[in-house]
Design a protein that fits this description.
Helices cover 40% and strands 17% of the residues. By secondary structure, the chain is of the alpha/beta class. The chain has two domains: 133 residues, Alpha-Beta Complex (Aspartate Aminotransferase, domain 1); 255 residues, Type I PLP-dependent aspartate aminotransferase-like (Major domain) (Aspartate Aminotransferase, domain 2). A seven-stranded mixed sheet has the order 4-10-9-8-7-5-6, sandwiched between helices. The chain has a four-stranded antiparallel sheet with strand order 13-14-17-16, with helices on one face. A two-stranded antiparallel sheet has the order 1-2. Helix 2 runs antiparallel to helix 10 and helix 11 packs parallel to helix 14. The chain is globular and about 70 Å long. Bound molecules: pyridoxal-5'-phosphate. Pyridoxal-5'-phosphate (PLP) binds next to helix 4.
Length: 403
């Protein structure tokens, strides 16, 4: 993996902020876009644009072909069995809301239970709370140890005959913990319960194979995997998706409509009401092709090396506290230094050209568990370098001296 060549594919990486070279360590929030993704968006608007699925004319058919080819690219990328299992949404958040709504309507009632973990992003908590308010379901929470690893024994104990679904993050966006999804799916299945994986933070960083993991549902966002904003994916095993009612009503998701009765469309269109972001799905496919060409194993190895290097360098800073020291960890480092407020640290690092995230990272229950209000988070992408980590370390040391 030749890092200079990769960096040259991302024009934004050569810009400066406050007269300093940009060091972009906010990849957990969103990733930067390679030229091929941006160009696919402009090219399609300039030369193909037409609404998909409904047109007999040339452009509509070409746009439809591109959109459906993108579905196949996603299918291949996560190794799903069929494109019927790939639903395009607006992002991870919408994918989880879709499931909470449809799965909840079909399979969950008063007293039924969903199992989540203490390290979930709000988007994998609040939809279940909305369902709890509507249908009286209960939420059970898998606890973790101080290293940030989910307690598997406790997880097993949470199952009851009212458990209907498990929904957990593959990789924590705060701690970086890589949860043992394959094992957790096996436990859920032993209880006859399906498992939903929030793969927002894993898809960009490690190879994800839904067949191998044997998960029932998996969701992610294009913008976190070098693709455009506004597009996401819900993968679901066909046998589950077949049983779920539509999420929204409208065009595209129907086969026939009369005022007396509407026949819904088949998968995957049953869940895709209205005009999809067909330009965005092409962008997502370009992004997946881009990282596939580099190789997920190479990306994972590069980011792993970078995270090890950064962890070791950060730990040498006096007063450094790192949150999340799981045995298996992704490329996310959350930290605090002495009594310096995370917001002050983030603001001062920004002045040095370093983009990090500060705050609760949409995981307030996790912050409560850790007994803190927030952290500074550096999250790495495939284009980050050890030299940039050195700039971060020097920046933190400089800020520390000011306090
Ligand atoms: N889940 C996790 C683990 C995340 O890190 C994020 C975003 O930070 C989300 C869900 C929500 O993603 P989106 O805002 O793209 O829907």
């Amino acid at each position: 993996m030749i890092i200079e060549k990769i960096r040259a594919d991302f024009p934004i990486l050569s810009r400066e902020v406050y007269g300093k070279p940009l060091v972009y360590f906010d990849n957990g929030a969103t990733t930067q876009k390679p030229r091929c993704v941006v160009e696919s968006i402009t090219d399609e608007y300039y030369s193909v644009n037409a609404n998909v699925h409904r047109g007999v004319h040339f452009l509509s058919q070409q746009a439809t072909e591109l959109h459906e080819a993108s579905r196949e690219t996603v299918r291949k990328f996560i190794n799903a069995r069929s494109t019927n299992e790939i639903i395009f949404t607006r992002g991870t958040t919408e994918s989880i809301n879709l499931l909470a709504s449809s799965f909840g309507e079909e399979f969950m009632g008063e007293g039924d239970e969903v199992i989540l973990s203490v390290m979930e992003h709000h988007s994998n908590i609040v939809p279940w709370q909305l369902l709890a308010a509507k249908r009286g379901i209960a939420i059970r929470v898998i606890p973790m140890n101080d290293k940030g690893e989910l307690l598997q024994d406790e997880y097993e104990k949470l199952f009851t005959d009212r458990t209907k679904l498990v929904s957990v993050a593959h990789i924590s966006n705060v701690l970086g913990t890589v949860n043992p999804i394959k094992e957790m799916a096996a436990v859920a299945h032993a209880h006859g319960v399906p498992l939903l994986v929030d793969a927002a933070q894993s898809i960009p960083h490690i190879a994800v194979d839904v067949e191998d993991l044997d998960v029932d549902f998996l969701v992610f966002s294009a913008h976190k995997v070098y693709g455009p904003t506004g597009v996401g994916v819900l993968y679901g095993k066909e046998e589950w998706l077949d049983k779920l009612p539509p999420y929204q009503g409208g065009g595209e998701m129907i086969q026939h409509v009369s005022f007396e009765k509407t026949v819904f469309n088949e998968l995957p269109f049953k869940f895709e009401a209205g005009t999809p972001d067909y330009i965005g799905t092409t962008g997502l496919a370009k992004a997946l092709d881009y990282i596939s060409a580099i190789g997920m194993d190479k990306i994972a190895a590069h980011e792993h090396g970078l995270t090890e290097y950064a962890t070791q360098r950060l730990k040498a800073i006096p007063g450094m506290r790192i949150f999340g020291e799981a045995g298996k960890k992704g490329s996310v480092i959350s930290f605090l230094v002495g009594n310096i407020h995370h917001f002050d640290m983030g603001t001062l690092l920004d002045r040095l050209g370093i983009a990090v995230r500060t705050g609760h990272h949409c995981a307030q229950p996790l912050m409560q568990r850790l007994g803190i209000e927030g952290t500074v988070r550096a999250s790495f992408g495939l284009y980050n370098t050890e030299e940039e980590v050195d700039v971060l370390v020097a920046g933190i040391e400089r800020v520390s001296r000011m306090f």
